[in-house]
Design a protein that fits this description.
The protein is α+β, with helices and mostly antiparallel strands and 523 residues long. The chain contains nine helices and 33 strands. Strands 22, 25, 26, 27, 28, 29, 30, 31, 32 and 33 form a ten-stranded antiparallel beta sheet that branches. A five-stranded antiparallel beta sheet has the order 9-8-13-11-10, with helices on one face. The chain has a four-stranded antiparallel beta sheet with strand order 12-16-19-20. The longest helix has 28 residues. About 4% of the residues have low confidence.
């Protein structure tokens, strides 16, 4: 037993010495082996652009090797290098493992990046105009397409553009500057803004100078030219397939296209006048605006309508000094009558056109005139203004006198429903059960309440605007002659009295003593 114990201890000690020796040898001879741990993933296979690049000990090491590979690739190239990079790692835990050397992994990464290098990208320019963008190959092409927009209104090429750094941007973004050797416009019309009094003084001085000039003394022609839209030009690197040909870009920028814009309704506007002014068909305006039902829809000053106007992607503004002779009308003069309704008006004086000679600066947006500043005016014939007397009172409104009901007979010609009935219906009938509440269509004074022969029981109401409403075939009258009623007040119950073919309400509106179609006046 002692002999066994002695040999066992010697064998155990020898085993431990052998393990220690082997471990030390591994550390000295094989430094790439990873020490044994049990802390999760400790080996990572690196994939670059889908291809295996090597085995590393951490994700951070993989990204550091990628940085070194990209730096080396850029150092070897003569110009900027573009390459798509997709780095992924796949981790796992190993008790014993060997990572690849830095040189091996970086060399593999360089090879993969070199194979995936994008070689067809070059310096280009992205031109941004509002929400529109176009990519042009070089700065000369950018100037050419932008100059084309100006040349449309400047055939003599008096105005030229330059690309300059945008002082309001922190990054290198270019914008445009328009130059011309002819600075007469700026000297003449751009007044210094150093106080209201000084500005008014200089404007008076300019007006006085214009009065002293004859029409032949003005220097007519193009005064100023500028872009109405904000332009940004950004340097970038793009492939050939992302660039737009210069001629194509010029056509896009200068060709008119339909664009939605907002038109604010002005006092006195009508839909037909807006259609004529904007040259847009009336049915098209109605189609674009959900608030409009038809050509008779009501519009008020301040309302906003969506309209389409032909405009290019890049709009150009300009000012031209011109001479013209014209017949013109004086502004309409109004006399306001507080006793009349706003629907009432009378022309008190017919207008007569005048004639004048004018030197003016006209401002355009593309082909449309946006403003006219008269520099000198010579009236040869004075105009006579149109004078109109108009009311200021809001006219009363009319409502349907019953709730529900089905139209059983409309206004106008019809077949006689019963013997002795008229073939021309002077009101409108709503079929409704006997006893339906009948309301006053408009505020007014009751002038008749009782039996009305063929109408059966009736109510007549006179209104402040001179109109009258009538309610026929009633079963019960609830008001008296001379009684004042308000719009919506209950005045009777519907019935089937008089010459009638069934329970219904007969309703009339009279203007100047004659019946009109009630549906044209009900709100």
């Amino acid at each position: 037993m002692k002999k066994f114990t002695k040999y066992y201890l010697e064998i155990r000690i020898a085993h431990l010495r052998a393990v220690a020796f082997i471990s030390l040898a591994c550390l000295l001879l094989f430094p790439g082996f990873h020490k044994i741990e049990s802390t999760g993933n400790n080996m990572y296979t690196v994939f670059l652009n889908g291809e295996e690049a090597g085995l590393v000990d951490s994700e951070e090491t993989a990204w550091e090797y990628l940085r070194q590979a990209r730096t080396g690739l850029a150092r070897e190239a003569d110009s900027l290098v573009f390459v798509d990079v997709d780095l992924k790692t796949e981790g796992r835990e190993l008790l014993v493992g060997k990572v690849d050397s830095r040189e091996t992994v970086v060399e593999n990464m360089c090879r993969i990046l070199q194979e995936d290098k994008i070689t067809d990208r070059s310096l280009a320019y992205t031109v941004k105009i509002n929400e529109f963008t176009v990519n042009i190959q070089n700065a000369e092409g950018v100037i050419e397409i932008l100059q084309a927009a100006l040349s449309k209104y400047d055939p003599e090429n008096e105005f030229q553009i330059e690309l300059v750094l945008d002082p309001e941007r922190e990054i290198n973004v270019l914008t445009t500057r328009i130059t011309t050797s002819d600075v007469r416009a700026k000297e003449a019309y751009e007044l210094p803004k150093a106080g209201v009094e000084k500005e008014f003084y200089e404007m008076d001085e300019l007006s006085e100078a214009n009065l002293q000039m004859s029409f032949e003394d003005f220097d007519y022609g193009l005064v100023d030219l500028y872009y109405e839209d904000e332009i940004e030009i950004i340097e970038t690197y793009l492939g050939a397939e992302e660039l737009t040909d210069v001629n194509t870009a010029k056509e896009i920028l200068t060709k008119d296209q339909e664009k939605n814009t907002v038109y604010e309704v002005q006092p006195g506007d009508t839909l037909s006048e807006i259609s004529l002014e904007t040259e847009i068909p009336l049915d098209r305006i109605i189609e674009m605006n959900e608030t409009l039902e038809d050509e008779n829809s009501t519009i008020r000053a301040g309302d906003e309508l969506i309209i389409t106007i032909p405009e290019p992607e890049l709009s150009v503004g300009r000012q031209e000094e011109i001479y013209y002779e014209e017949d013109y009308d004086a502004p309409v003069e109004y006399i306001y009558n507080d006793a009349w309704y706003t629907t009432d008006s009378v022309v008190r004086q017919q207008p007569s056109a005048g004639h004048r000679n004018v030197a003016a600066v006209v401002t355009y947006r593309n082909a449309s005139v946006t403003d006219t500043e008269i520099l000198k005016e010579e009236v040869t014939i004075s105009p006579v203004p149109k004078i109109v007397e108009v009311g200021t009172r809001i006219p009363p409104t009319y409502i349907k006198p019953i709730s529900g009901g089905r139209i059983s007979s409309r206004f106008g010609r019809r077949s006689a429903p019963t013997r002795g009935a008229s073939t021309y219906h002077r009101g409108i009938d709503w079929a409704t059960p006997v006893g339906t509440a009948v309301a006053a269509s408009c505020s007014g004074t009751v002038t008749r309440a009782g039996w009305g022969s063929g109408y059966g029981y009736v109510v007549y109401i006179n209104h402040e605007d001179g109109r009258q409403t009538r309610y026929g075939h009633l079963s019960k009258v609830l008001v008296k002659v001379g009684q004042r009623v308000n719009q919506g007040d209950k005045i009777a119950l519907s019935g089937n009295t008089g010459r009638s073919t069934g329970p219904h309400l007969h309703f009339e509106i009279l203007i100047g003593g004659s019946q009109v179609n009630p549906l044209d006046y009900l709100n």
